[in-house]
Every structure is written in structure tokens, then in C-alpha cells.
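Let us practice reading a record.
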Amino acid sequence: MIARVHRTAAATLIAFAIGAVAPACAQDLEAVNYPNRPIHIIVPFPAGGPTDILSRIVGREMTASWGQTVVIENRPGADTAIGAEVVAKADPDGYTLLAAMDSTMVLNPLVKKELPYDPVRDFEPISLGAKNISVLEVRGDSAAHTVADLLDTLKARPGKLNFGTGTTNGRLAALLFAKLTGTNFAIIPYKGSAETVEGLLTGSVDFGVDGMASSYPLIKDGKFRALAKLSDRPLSQMPDLPPLAEAAGVPELGDISTWIAFYAPAGTSSEITGKLAHFIATIYADPAVAHRLQEAGIIAVSSTPAELKTFVHSETERWGKVIHDNASYIFE
């Protein structure tokens, strides 16, 4: 009887062990075979902006290398929260990815009371995609040729000019710029770069902030004029363009660069996120891809998942201090 009980207990333990190992084996097999069907990259902006352009370049390389269709889905709205929620609720199998921005992972959680996603709980980091430089720009026929010219106009016509931007980052930049320069203007929020560009072209706004990827072709054509960059990092396309903090005489403005990163839903295996991160690093090392990204105005930067996690933590601390120090002005 005792031997039979022992044999039954042993069989039960083996069954439990097999049951525990089976899902792990299935996950390993899925990672080895990944990808074996179409991948969807959710871009939380309309088509045409830096995040969309980068995602399409990465998607084309995925299709060329892996032979699987990559579908770019534009889900704009709610300062990227609509697209982020789609990915947060997707199956954690690596076939639905998010092209997130600093707004998605850092600024929204700092400035919004309620979000339909949690940037830490709901996503697995994959890799940085780009550290872009945004520019302060006006139409090509504007009387403002420098930041000093723009400041003179803003001070002569308080509250009369409109500013356009498609990101939380851009709106915070505008608020800080207004505070530090003692100017007053209306901030018009857009859903992304395409609307910002249209607003500036049609005269709905007088000046604005947008990424180089969507602005540079219009700057080259003379339709837009860049007055400053929102960073002190080098900008190869316009090496003489001054940083806004320097041009406006407000060093406290600091660096307000934007960045893009790729994420998967929480629970996606580290084998899959690691495979994706390695792929991004590999294509960025290809001179042809690097040239295509540079021509599009995108400063490509990759990372490991762990490096991305650390970077986002440091960005949260940096912006958290800025927002805390200016809370009464930002949230008035």
C-alpha cells in the first residue's frame, strides 16, 4: 500500500513537472520560429511624422530579412494613449508592437491623471529607435529670420500669435519658452506632425515645433524656415542652426529632444524582445539603412531592452524635476 501511494505521488509530481515545462517549451519554440506570420507595428500618430517614417523603414527591413509582412497601423489621438492602449491589450506574442515616444512612456504619466495604460506594467522594452532633434520653425515668408525676431514680434503682439505642435513634449517646450522669455501666445495642440505641418502651411499657426523628419524637406524647399533646434546636439543637415536655449538667451530651457522606442505587450518572452532588439541594432549598422534614416532626418539609436529601461527611468527623473519645478505654470 505504501509503495503504491509513493508511486501515485511520484506520478503526480511528474505530471505537474511536465505541465510546468510544456508552456516554457512552447514559448521557446515560438521564439525560435519567430516571426512566422505578419507583424503589426502600432504608430500612435498620423502617417508622415518621424515615428511613422522610422517604423516604415524598420518594417521594410523586417520584411526583407524575415519574409513576413509588416503592417504599420496609424492609431493617433489622446497624446499617443489610443495607440498605446491597443498594444497594452494585445497578445504578448511579438506580433503587435508599439512605436512609442517620450510622450507615451514618460511625459503622459507625469502630466495626466488618468491613462488607459501603465508604461511600466503593460509593456516589455525592446530597443530605442531614434533620438530626434525638433526645430522651432516659421513659414518661409515670415518676417522672423531669427529667434530674436520672433521674440520681438511676440512681445509687440502679446497673445496674438498661435503656436502649433503635435506632441506633449512640444507643448511643454512652448510653455517653458513662454515662461522663460516673458511672452504670451496661444498653443494649438495637434495629433502629430502631419497636422502641425498643415497648420503652419495654411497659416492656422504662426510658428511651431516639429521633428526634422517631417520638417526638413519643407525647409529645403523654402516653405519653412528653421530658427533654432531644441537641443545642443549636432545637426548635420543644418550645422549652423543654434540651440533654442542659446538663441533665446534662456539656458534654463535645456535640451528638449524627442526620442522613439519600440515596445511589446507585457509578458512577451525575452527571447522575442531580444531577437527584435538584435535585429534593430543589425540594420542600423548597415550603411545603406543608416544613410536612408539620415536622409529622412532621423538620428537612429538602438539599445538593449535593459538599456532602454534604464534610459526611460532617467528620462522620467529628469522630466519629473522639470515639471515639479514649473508645476504652477504648467498646470495653471
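A brief commentary: The first strand starts at residue 39 and ends at 43.
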